[in-house]
Amino acid sequence: MAHFRINIYLSISNFLKSFFISDPEIKKIEKFINKTSGKRGFVLTSQLRVGFLILLKYLKKKFPKKKEIIFQPFNLPEMINVAKNLGFKTNFVEQSLETGEPNLQSLKKRLNKKTLAVVVTNIFNSPSLLLNIKKICSKKKIFLIEDNAIYFDNHFYKKNKKYFSGSFGDFSLYSFNVMKNISGFFGGGVSTNDTKFIKFANEEISNYKNFNKYLLSKQILIFLILKILKFRVFYKIFIKVLRQAHQNNNLSVLKIVYPSLKFKRISFPSYYFSKISEISKKVIYLQLKDIKNRNQNSLTRKNNNIYYYNLFKKLKIKNVKLFTVEDFNFQNYMDFPILVKNKDKLNNYLLLKNIETKYLFYHNCAKIFESKKNLKIQKNAEFFGNQVIGLPNHSKISKNYMNKIGYTIKEFYEKNL
Question: Do 305 and 179 share a structural domain?
Fold first, then answer.
């Protein structure tokens, strides 16, 4: 078996099983989500951004005078584009270079009477930061929207009680895309206690068409290809193609590996207005109810994150910086992020050694959407874009392989390549 960076958490057995079970009721999926979010209602959508679109339409209708939304600038541009397409003004908050979290003072400065919501993207966020933002938003009567696309089953303890990511927001967004912790090919959702939103969302979705069969078939094919790539012979071919794509800046290949490179500022694609497919509902349900495997997956990721953290602390590589981690249960990364200098050269060197990293996380959305405004905020987001890489983290990644990655990175900087 090869050490492929991506491990699709949907098993082949659950994929095949989905063809032989009846379509699960939404209530069954809702039950599992509500147990982690601590909320009473859940709406299942075809994608996270579709749930976000419906949510913003609802809030816009309910509070027409509030026209501003605050985001973290290091983000997925498609999310900001949803707000822009609905006529909202977007503001960006400064992110700390030490932790990657939103700066609270920067956030407070941007809040005003027109602020409708603050969207926190859980990528580097800690429990204490989210609790502080929740207090600020609650005091100002501003909605807190928690983007929980990457975090799932991440948790922390307060007074011996377990709280999950997704429990902070007035509205919490979930993603069940093919490479997420719960892999549904396509899928997303919104959890909340707002029963009026639940009714509004269900009415919206009832008018949507069935999910595009071509897009779904294409995603299932990607799922099967990614499963095959864990075999060494196919992985070697993949690494060679990826290495050449990076060296030659072959965007047609890189856009397949990193879909966010395809982003264009356009109106909503027609497939946004689609219901989630039956097969997506089935595989999501099968994974959600397998609590034992979910807990093991979360524990393995956490232990790998701790191992990486201690390894790089021990290696003391001058050109590698670690993010501050408050709680490894909560900041439980799917790919362990580090900040590196000469990112492009390091990435090419690692690919030569058959080591694949997550080269691209998010984009500098302040630069994309605000041009020359808020230059300091743009500078910090650009810093993350230029220096963050993610190291592979899943159940198939051994300690020996993590050591190999760490010492190969050390070797690169010692050679001054």
Answer: no
